[in-house]
Write a structure and sequence with these properties.
heterodimer, A: alpha+beta, 6-stranded mixed β-barrel, disordered N terminus, B: mainly alpha, two-stranded antiparallel ribbon, 6 helices
Chain lengths: ~900, ~130
């Protein structure tokens, strides 16, 4: 960990790291720190040393950027800069609105771009940009085919574009060292060639070698630094010691250096032993295939070679490979560009950014219009047009850069927070959410672009007439600048965005508030929840029973024994297994109810073990619980008993008697409907819909022994649930060392940390209100600017009309007519936009469409936007109404 | 501003006469010469500031040194990390014989042109 020099303010250091880029950046940043330290040691006050640090940073960033981009020296005059800064202070409201708009608009607008940068960056390894993934894409189902063992075998023999190709099968497995603890650790079965691809030498011992891959060779393991430190006390003589991975003892042959977690967050590596010819195409372990491009070969060339080879395989094996396409992608590419959601987000984000930038332009145009007399006088005194335009441009640039700077800092702070928050979840080692220089350059470029649009165009407009006419207009108090179609379109767009996002916000907010407190109908804090997984030998390339009746029977026996031992442990009050636990987002299915027409209903479903309700202490309120007879000797497709919840009875059966009624899964057009299932019991509310706890109508299907591994377990305990975790892992490993217990937490925390709830929080609680807030502020500012501008332009007309006896209502109509029209147009467009966005944001899902009816919601949103828009018009309107005819006539006279 | 303009063509063409040095480059080379073994970004910057009163940025020094290195006038080496730099290394520079020749040529050219003109220059500047 590098030492921080005394006293360099963190904000300044962060700014320097953000701005100083290029190959010499580390030395320059070091110099900046050292110069600061020397200044302080020489007795310079901290404030002055900080200012020198800042000046040095800005100068260095400019020099390095100029050298990198090879642009000639450009420096605006100091007077222009001073004027720009003075304008910021002179008009604090405009500055605040513009900076707010850009400092929110830029991070939100650049988010998809930044995500793209993250997922296309080079691996932080030697020549990491040359490490790529080779994968087979299933075009028919739009997904990656996970079992490319046979393809890998052919690739390894035939491809010439790669220095080396290797494969890894990832799996979390129980590691048992001499400390006696049992804990699952992410690891991988990997070919020795991967160590050559990553070019990272072990800290101790050796990496895996090819002879380790031979069937029958001794079982060896290379361990990661963290595992070595945490479980083997950093023993320097660890090489040669034995640890147990799952049920098999492995000899430690090497330790990798700190930070090495390839391919994602792995901490041990065993040899991948596969016999490709013993499995069919599309079978075998789940593999990640990686390669290092040969020197001089580009990714496109490698892709072309792989594509042609893939075509050959498809021609030979059309039964499995007709719709498969092999491709080379950067290792960090997680396929985000392949999702329509990414492009939709990109579009929305850029639209918001364009509106934010455009709005700042409108505000500056209004400001320039107000200053047209000053500009006319300056022109008359000899200032060239270029001089005046450049001054307005610099003023806009100062404003835009301030906004962009705030935006980047805000984005950086949020990214760092998020990184810290998600790191414990086991994210890939290369995932760095921090700002990239590309994002910084893009933000600064956007600031410069918006300054060009916002500064140069009004500047040209303001200086486009001859001096005499400009002076005449200035004397008459008229600018000659018009708020044209672009400004109108911008204001309408902002009002539309404000209306749409307010509407979504109003709709999502109740869910956010409700989902903050998961309602499960049980004392969730007394339960321990965890994922129970089992290593399937085939998935990690090991010999073992595949998905056969014998294997299923073995898992069933393991399941029963684990449950027996856990239930008998001291302090355990109940054990419940399911594919989804209370408080989690349960799967949504479509069903039909017998005798209630063919209209399908969307409800929730959970597969649970026979003792599930007893384990949770939730006895049926009507009918009976599941019994062993419901599942014994019956394959899943022939089971008929289901239990529904009280919400199901109220919302689907409309309060009628439930017992004995029948439901079935709705069939698609080309399918036969499934068998009827009989309702045998009704249970209370157990939290099947985490977003909308009230709308959790659903049913439970019984599952037999072994069918819920992998699955979820909830254990009711007398004491602190988390204190039971080591004991639970020990009990489970005693039965089967290959069964893992992961993500242990209380059931309460489990529900609060679920993906859907977090997603709702970020979308509904943060993003939507943020966008709505920006749009509202922008539209209010735009309307304010428009009405202010109109009042200034028509001051004389208003004065004369008042003198001639015009009523206040006529004056208001004159001033605000256009603003009102734009407001009304924007609200109408917003409601249409809101309607169009329905399928995209998933708000038609019954989980989120509740609490407030659609017509009321639309009316309320429109009213709120209208009220805010009208409020923004009030101050300039009052100014217009206060114009005294006497003053105006004096000016004319 | 003039300094940078004067020195830019050298980085673009790379084929200018060996002795063509901008004023800023001359200052840097004199500084490297004077500092000897201890010539790195911070010390060069301080040296120029002390002797000329001009405040230059670290980035500008590295940019100019990069150009001078491309032209074979200086060599560089990265040192060990030292305290007070957050683990970042210093980059030390040393004058090469080509650089020394170019600096000498620039200096003698300037001297030859300026010879005997200082009183007149002072008179004009003050008058």
């Amino acid at each position: 960990m590098p030492t921080r020099p005394p006293g360099v303010p963190r904000l300044l250091r962060r700014l320097a790291a953000l701005l100083v880029r290029g190959p010499d950046a580390p030395c320059v940043l070091g110099d900046l720190d050292e110069a600061y330290t020397r200044d302080v040691r020489r007795g310079l006050p901290a404030g002055r040393a900080g200012r020198r640090y800042l000046r040095n940073t800005l100068g260095s960033a400019a020099s390095l950027a100029r050298a990198r981009l090879r642009v000639p020296h450009f420096a605006p005059s100091a007077v222009d800069l001073k004027l720009g800064v003075r304008m910021l202070r002179k008009q604090p409201a405009l500055t605040a609105v513009a900076v707010f708009a850009l400092s929110v608009g830029i991070p939100v607008g650049l988010l998809p771009f930044h995500m793209g940068q993250i997922f296309s960056s080079a691996l932080p390894l030697e020549e990491g940009e040359r490490i790529v993934t080779l994968r087979v894409r299933d075009l028919e189902h739009s997904r990656v085919m996970p079992r490319p063992l046979r393809d890998y075998h052919v690739w390894r023999q035939e491809l010439t574009s790669f220095e080396a190709i290797g494969a890894a099968a990832r799996e979390s497995r129980n590691v048992m060292a001499e400390d006696g603890r049992v804990a699952p650790v992410p690891g991988a079965a990997m070919t020795a060639s991967v160590f050559a691809i990553v070019r990272v030498a072990p800290l101790l011992g050796r990496p895996l070698v090819e002879s380790d891959e031979v069937p029958g060779a001794p079982d060896v393991v290379v361990i990661g630094y963290d595992l070595w430190q945490a479980r083997l006390a950093g023993d320097p003589d660890v090489v040669g010691r034995t640890i147990r991975i799952g049920s098999v003892p492995h000899e430690v042959v090497g330790v990798m250096p700190e930070g090495f977690l390839f391919p994602s967050n792995q901490n041990f590596w065993t040899a991948l032993r596969t016999d490709p010819l013993s499995v069919g195409w599309g079978e075998g372990p789940w593999l990640t295939v990686v390669g290092r491009l040969s020197p001089g070969v580009t990714e496109a060339q490698a892709n072309a070679e792989l594509f042609i080879l893939g075509q050959g395989i498809a021609a030979e094996h059309p039964e499995t490979h007709r719709y498969l396409r092999a491709e080379v992608t950067p290792f960090t590419d997680e396929g985000i560009y392949d999702t329509p959601v990414y492009w939709l987000l990109q579009f929305l984000a850029l639209a918001l950014l364009a509106v934010a930038c455009g709005n700042v332009g409108t505000l500056i145009l209004a400001r320039t219009a107000m200053r047209s007399s000053e500009i006319a006088v300056r022109t008359a005194l000899g200032a060239s047009r270029a001089r005046v335009v450049s001054q307005i441009f610099i003023e806009a640039l100062v404003l835009a850069l301030l906004g962009a700077g705030c935006g980047l800092l805000l984005g950086d702070v949020l990214a760092n927070r998020l990184q810290v928050a998600i790191e414990p979840m086991g994210i890939p080692f290369w995932l760095d959410l921090g700002l990239r220089w590309q994002t910084t350059v893009m933000a600064l470029g956007l600031a410069a672009f918006s300054a060009t649009i916002a500064g140069v165009i009004p500047g040209l407009k303001a200086t486009g007439r001859d001096v005499r006419r400009s002076l005449q207009r200035a004397a008459a108090g008229v600018s000659g600048i018009r708020f044209g179609g672009v400004s109108t379109a911008l204001i309408v767009a902002e009002v539309a965005l404000a209306t749409a996002f307010l509407s979504i916000g109003a709709q999502v907010l109740p869910s956010v508030l409700q989902s903050a407190e998961p309602g499960m109908g049980i004392a969730a804090e007394e339960y321990l929840s965890a994922r129970v997984g089992v290593v399937i030998p085939e998935r990690v390339g090991e010999a073992g029973p595949a998905d056969t009746a014998a294997a299923r029977a073995a898992i069933a026996a393991t399941d029963l024994e684990i449950r027996r031992r856990v239930a008998a442990a001291p302090g355990v009050r109940g054990v419940a297994l399911a594919n989804s636990l209370p408080g989690e987002d349960h799967r949504v299915v479509t069903i039909e109810v017998e005798g209630a027409g063919t209209e399908p209903r969307r409800v929730r479903v959970a597969h649970v073990d026979v003792g599930f309700f007893r384990g949770l202490g939730a006895s049926p309120v009507q009918g009976r619980d599941f019994q062993r007879a419901d599942v014994a000797d019956t394959p899943p497709e022939e089971r008929r008993a289901v239990v529904v919840n009280t919400s199901f009875v109220e919302n689907v059966l409309h309060g009628g008697g439930a017992l004995g009624r029948r439901i079935r899964y709705a069939a698609r057009e080309d399918e036969e409907p499934g068998p009827w299932l009989e309702i045998v019991g009704v249970v209370g509310h157990l939290g099947m819909n985490e977003i909308n706890p009230e709308g959790d109508e659903g049913f439970y299907v019984p599952a037999g022994p072994g069918e819920l591994i992998p699955g979820r377990v909830a254990i009711h305990l007398a004491g602190d649930p988390l204190a039971f975790v080591p004991e639970l892992r020990r009990l489970v490993a005693e039965v089967d060392p290959d069964v893992t217990v992961r993500e242990p937490r209380t059931l309460d925390d489990n529900a609060k940390l679920s993906d859907a709830r977090m997603g709702t929080f970020w979308l509904g609680g943060v993003l939507v209100p943020l966008v709505a807030g920006v749009a509202i502020v922008l539209s209010a500012a735009g309307l304010f600017a428009l009405v202010s501008f109109t009042v200034s332009e028509r001051r004389r007309e208003i004065g004369i009309r008042t003198a001639l006896g015009a009523r206040s209502s006529d004056i208001v109509r004159t001033i605000a007519r256009r603003a009102f029209l734009q407001l009304a147009g924007g609200i109408a467009a917003g409601l249409v936009l809101r309607r169009l966005m329905d399928p995209q944001v998933g708000l038609t899902d019954d989980s989120l469409m509740h609490a407030i009816g659609r017509p009321t919601l639309f009316a309320a949103t429109a009213a709120a936007t209208l009220a805010i828009g009208l409020l923004a018009c009030v101050p300039p309107l009052l100014r217009g109404l206060r114009i005294q005819p006497v003053d105006v006539l004096k000016e004319v006279g | 501003m003039t300094l940078c303009r004067a020195s830019l063509p050298s980085s673009r063409s790379g084929s200018l006469r060996m002795g063509t040095l901008g004023e800023f480059e001359q200052l840097i080379l004199f500084s490297v010469l004077q500092l000897g073994e201890d010539a790195f970004g911070v010390s060069i910057r301080e040296n120029i500031e002390e002797r000329t009163g001009r405040v230059v940025s670290s980035g500008a020094i590295y940019t100019a040194l990069g150009r001078l290195e491309e032209r074979g006038f200086v060599t560089s080496r990265v040192g060990e990390p030292v305290e007070g730099r957050a683990g970042r290394p210093r980059k030390y520079y040393a004058l090469r014989s080509d650089g020394a020749r170019a600096l000498k040529e620039s200096y003698t050219t300037l001297q030859a042109m300026a010879g005997g003109l200082l009183p007149k220059l002072t008179e004009l500047a003050e008058g």
